[in-house]
Amino acid sequence: xxxxxxxxxxxxxxxxxxxxxxxxxxxxxxxxxxxxxxxxxxxxxxxxxxxxxxxxxxxxxxxxxxxxxxxxxxxxxxxxxxxxxxxxxxxxxxxxxxxxxxxxxxxxx
Length: 109
Prior knowledge:
- The protein is mainly beta.
- The protein has a single domain, classed as Sandwich (Immunoglobulin-like).
- Helices cover 0% and strands 35% of the residues.
- The strands form 2 sheets. A 3-stranded antiparallel sheet has the order 3-2-5, with no helix packed on it.
- It is globular, with a radius of gyration of 15 Å.
- The mean pLDDT is 80.
C-alpha cells in the first residue's frame, strides 16, 4: 500500500441514504491529505459546499476537527493524522448561501 489511495462515490451510492461509509487505509506518513470533489445530482461541481471532518476513535469517541469549504471547482483538501486506530467521517452540506455565477443564482429549494 502507498501514501495515496482513491475512492469515488457517485450519486448511486447515496440512493435512499443520508450517509455512507467507505474505508481507505494508508501507510507511512504521520499526516495525510484527504482531498475530494463535491458534485450535485447533475454531476456539476458544487462551489461553497461545507465539508465537516469528524475523527472517530476506538469506542466510537467522536471529535469534531472542523470544516472546510469547497472551491470554485468543488474541490476540498484537509490534512489529518495517519493513525490506524482512528477513522474520519466527512459530512457534506449544500452551500449556505447561493453562489453568484455571473448573474445566475442557484435554486436551493
